[in-house]
Amino acid sequence: MRKRQGKVLSEHQAGNVSRLKPATSTPMMVGSGDITWVCGHCDHHLAEGIMPGQINNLILICYSCGALNYISTELESGPDLPSSN
Ligand SMILES: [Zn+2]
Got the DSSP string for 31-52? Predict the structure, then answer.
């Protein structure tokens, strides 16, 4: 499993990018891929088991801290992050 952090944007930076807001603390999407997206601010899990390219140009709002986490395919190819679990 590869762990990736969303890029935290300000309200202004986020602009008109589509946003998903979670109803509960569980990850908004769970699939069978190998990428886990976590909040770039607090490390809360936003989406798990994501396939490469599955989420692109979308903002996932963190349930825990409310940060606007921008997800894109470019961020998928960044360095591996240490796993916290
Ligand atoms: Zn957060």
Answer: -SSSEEEE-TTT--EEEEEEPT
